[in-house]
Design brief:
The complex is a heterodimer of chains A (157) and B (760). By secondary structure, chain A is of the alpha+beta class. Chain A has helices at 26-33, 90-97, 107-119, 126-132, 143-156; strands at residues 5-11, 14-20, 52-55, 58-61, 74-76. Classes of the chains: A alpha+beta (157), B alpha+beta (760).
Chain lengths: 157, 760
């Protein structure tokens, strides 16, 4: 397959033009073509959640989304979460304060899921947070702190 | 990689050793700015993928690569036909056979062994072309796993045997006996960041961006493979997306990528797919062990007889030592322990969090629970009754062993005294409730390390070390150490890590890094402070010279004579001395160590010291208490509560330590209830080679875990009093949970994981 397609992607409020093969995933487009490496590749088969980002405000697994599918939609990645002057999103701050990560590799996906989890109204109790954050694996085992951080950020929201 | 000042939140920042400083590199990790190995931007990259074997044993007869070569974008196909011109590198044991190295093997020794590689302009093109490769094999008989009828008894490893007293006779004479076999399956690291690298050549200089638990050791392997001076290899690894023992060695995929990059004359990136992460390197070996305990009627241990075995590969010996913890947990006058390795057609197993101690604790700690049940005794009381007053294996006194405190304080926090010791005595409707406990241990291991401190003219303090941080908190505790010694805020410190051209360090493995590298950083920083004091008191240009003092105080960001009189900030002092930089390098080798000694210390395991090499026997200890809820109809087990108490000596940063303890415990929860590598006996294939089928704990599987420190500083164990933290947390979790399941159901599961079909 040598054919490429031209895409215009709206990522973190910025317009990006790129020529990629149609089979390129949103995850690889971000990481390999646009230098947005904050979104992580953990399994590349929709099982671990490390690649979670938002498309039109909803969480998606970017490894199971073709880049072409994101055209005409608003994509938000971890790089787009902080404020215009770099001030951290409350979920990001809570993750640091509660040590909700160790190696940091699942963290962008956890944070993108957490922001959506709160927005979806699924952060009402620790049980609910655990359930709705269970699509994001953390092998370092920061789950207790993740729940605490999401709860605190939800209370601030 | 420079790590700049951390953000502070309220009063949680604490820039001294032992403080709860938030994670130093936290900002980079929560914003996506932390660059992991494969994310380093490199121009003109080519992309490689591996083709794994589909048979468990035999040889590659031919590789049909015509279609792949004709596929769009393909630059290179490598097969066992290619002469890589590489030499075997030194192994963990320090052995280096004088042989060529073929990272793509003609002999197939396990299913999934790489037999070809495709390099293309894009990863998508390489993946597509790899599917067109046709490999013809000549198959040979195979042994699929430890459970294979043809696996045999394996080979006794005599250096792992322990024996004192007359264990068999004491067991025969004991009035109370338990005997059982315990089994653990293959388990995998499943670090969230897959293995992979980018390799780039500039002439005979090789740069490797690869996640590494040991930058110097892995750089040495690349140098040996290609016959290069060590200095010609530059391995860069500032962030590692989890390792757990898997990222300490250079592996075949690294060799393939580096070779391909040289052959093509352009950089190559190669990442293992998630399934390939189950065969590209070894996880924890499957084990089985038989334990016989003899005791008196009132529960005094008379004898322990232990016979264990673990699987290894057909081409390497990796013992998952089932007798590692058995001899040191309890006071016993008669013990015999032996371990065998059984070669099967698997990738050589490797170190996974708590190697040896982990399955060993599953055996002895379940057996102790069985003995308590047989005696009708509280398992906690049984353990306290047989408390080891010294190390009966080495004969040495403990340096520190606060396991008694761990047990009693853990029990208190858990509410253990309310336990009705009869199985099936607690229920909530159709749900049976069980409480179980078990203990764990991990040895104190130390290795020489080196560090550099640079004080810049602007007053910033740099800590420079080849040590790595895969989430344990190395950045943070090194920053705290420097901040304390120079009396400056943590945000005045920079930490540079994860680079084979920086001063050498112990591996981040065997729970040895923090104690080892902190010793070096503390030594270097103290020396730099002394140097600065000497200059400040002697240089004519220094305002502090005429104070007549013989030392100076570093506190609150200022240098003074005991806080009195004139004081200067670090930049002011550096300016008065006319210095742009003050640089001090120190290591923890004996004085006068040669350059060769130093190189050996940083790049091999030759100078690593075990727990009983000195006057004492030194270990971390823990006690776990677990509550499970078991649905009697469906056999499903949910862990509902967990309390764990630890003796890890002094804690350099309790916030980081608690995270590591919980991480170990959670991996233990997976081991207890979920994790099991399944092998297809017909072809030796790892069937569940992905994270939807190989189950690791999710957030919903994990209750709040209470962790407690009962340790005291142990200055035999390390310069600053800490003992290992990273691995002890997992040791003993699985037996605590399995013992809780027994207490809930009256059913003893002796084979991990405790899954529902074993309970209904």
């Amino acid at each position: 397959m040598t054919r490429t397609i031209h895409l215009t992607l709206d990522i973190n409020g910025q317009r990006h033009e790129l020529d990629v093969e149609p089979r390129v995933t949103l995850l690889d487009a971000l990481r390999e073509h646009l230098g947005l490496t904050g979104t992580k590749k953990g399994c590349d088969q929709g099982q671990c959640g490390a690649c979670t980002c938002h498309v039109d405000g909803k969480r998606v697994l970017s490894c199971l989304t073709l880049a072409a599918q994101a055209e005409g939609r608003q994509v938000t990645t971890i790089e787009g979460l902080a404020g215009p002057n770099g001030e951290l999103h409350p979920v990001q701050s809570a993750f640091i304060e509660h040590d909700a990560f160790q190696c940091g590799y699942c963290t962008p996906g956890q944070i993108m899921s957490a922001v959506a989890c709160i927005r979806e109204g699924h952060a009402g109790s620790d049980e609910e947070i655990r359930e709705y954050m269970s699509g994001n694996l953390c092998r370092c085992g920061a789950y207790n702190s993740i729940v605490t951080a999401v709860r605190e950020a939800a209370e601030m929201a | 990689m420079t790590i700049m000042a951390p953000r502070k939140f309220g009063d949680s920042s604490d820039g001294v050793v032992g403080g709860r400083q938030t994670r130093f590199e936290g900002d980079l990790k929560v914003t996506g700015a932390a660059k992991y190995a494969l994310e380093h931007p490199v121009e003109n990259l080519a992309h490689g993928v591996l083709v794994p074997s589909t048979i468990p044993a035999g040889r590659v007869v031919s590789v049909d690569m015509q279609a792949a070569l004709a596929s769009p974008g393909v630059l290179l196909v490598l097969t066992p036909e290619d002469d890589f011109g590489m030499r075997v590198a030194t192994d963990w044991g320090g052995n280096r056979p004088d042989e060529p190295y073929y990272p793509l093997s003609r002999e197939v020794r396990y299913n999934g062994e790489p037999v070809a590689a495709v390099i293309a302009e894009s990863r998508e093109q390489a993946v597509a072309a790899a599917k067109l490769i046709r490999v013809t094999y000549e198959e040979a008989p195979h042994v699929a796993s430890l459970d294979d009828p043809n696996a045999g008894e394996g080979n006794l490893l005599e250096h792992l045997s322990a024996s004192w007293g007359d264990a068999e006779a004491a067991y025969a004479a004991a009035p109370v006996k338990v005997e059982a076999e315990y089994k653990t399956p293959r388990e995998y690291h499943v670090a969230m960041e897959p293995h992979g690298l980018t390799a780039k050549w500039d002439g005979d200089q090789l740069t490797v961006w690869e996640p590494s638990q040991w930058s110097h050791g892995m750089a040495r392997s690349y140098a040996e493979w290609f016959g290069l001076p060590f200095e010609n290899v530059h391995l860069i690894s500032p962030f590692i997306g989890g390792g757990f023992g898997s990222k300490g060695a250079a592996l075949a995929h690294g060799a393939v990528a580096a070779f391909a990059a040289r052959k093509l004359g352009r950089p190559v990136k190669l990442a293992l797919t998630r399934p390939q992460n189950f065969t590209g390197y070894g996880g924890r070996a499957a084990t089985r062990q038989t334990i016989k305990l003899g005791a008196t009627q009132d529960g005094v241990l008379q004898a322990i007889v232990h016979r264990g075995a673990s699987e290894t590969s057909t081409y390497g010996v990796w013992p998952e030592q089932t007798g590692a913890a058995t001899p040191i947990m309890y006071k016993v006058e008669n013990l015999s322990s032996e371990h065998r390795v059984v070669p099967v057609n698997t990738v050589t197993p490797g170190a996974l969090r708590g190697p040896g101690k982990n399955p060993s604790a599953f055996g002895i700690e379940t057996a102790m629970d069985e003995l308590a049940a047989q005696l009708g005794m509280d398992p906690l009381e049984l353990r306290l009754k047989n408390y080891a007053d010294r190390d009966y294996q080495s004969g040495k006194p403990w340096s520190t062993r606060r396991l008694r405190e761990a047990m009693t304080e853990g029990a208190e926090a858990f509410g253990w005294s309310k336990r009705n010791h009869a199985p099936r005595s607690m229920r909530d409707g159709r749900t049976l409730i069980g409480w179980g406990m078990a203990c764990g241990t991990f040895p104190v291991i130390q290795a020489p390390s080196e560090a550099m401190i640079r004080i810049l003219g602007n007053g910033r303090v740099e800590v420079v070390s080849g040590a790595i941080d895969m989430g344990q908190g190395t950045y943070t505790i090194l920053a705290q150490t420097a901040a304390e010694i120079f009396g400056v805020p943590v945000d005045q410190v920079e930490v540079h890590l994860g680079d084979s051209r920086m001063p050498g360090s112990a591996i981040a493995g065997g729970s040895m890094l923090a104690g080892s590298i902190l010793g070096a950083v503390h030594k270097a920083a103290s020396a730099a402070r002394d140097e600065l004091i000497g200059l400040a008191l002697s240089e004519p240009s220094s305002p502090l010279r005429d104070t007549g003092a013989n030392t100076l105080t570093f506190s609150g960001g200022r240098v003074s004579v005991g806080g009195e009189g004139p004081s200067l900030t670090l930049p002011e002092l550096m300016q008065s001395l006319g210095r742009d930089v003050l640089e001090i390098r120190r290591n923890t080798l004996p004085d006068g160590a040669s350059m060769e000694d130093q190189h050996q210390a940083w790049t091999t395991m030759a100078k690593v010291e075990g727990p009983t090499m000195g006057e004492y026997s030194m270990h971390s200890w823990c006690a776990h208490f677990a509550e499970v809820r078991v649905d009697e109809d469906f056999g499903t087990v949910r862990l509902s509560r967990m309390v764990s108490a630890f003796d890890c000596g002094r804690l350099y940063n309790p916030r980081m330590v608690e995270s590591q303890w919980r991480g170990g415990i959670i991996m233990g929860i997976g081991q207890a209830l979920l994790e099991e590598g399944l092998v297809d006996m017909r072809n030796g294939r790892t069937v569940n080679n992905n994270v939807a089928d190989y189950l690791v704990p999710t957030n919903a599987d994990v209750p709040d875990i209470q962790v407690i420190s009962v340790g005291v500083p142990d200055y035999n164990a390390s310069a600053l009093g800490g003992k290992g933290v990273g691995e002890v947390g997992i040791v003993g979790v699985a037996p605590a949970i399995a013992n809780a399941v027994f207490h809930a159901t009256g059913k003893r599961v002796r084979e991990l994981p405790v899954t529902l079909e074993k309970l209904i």
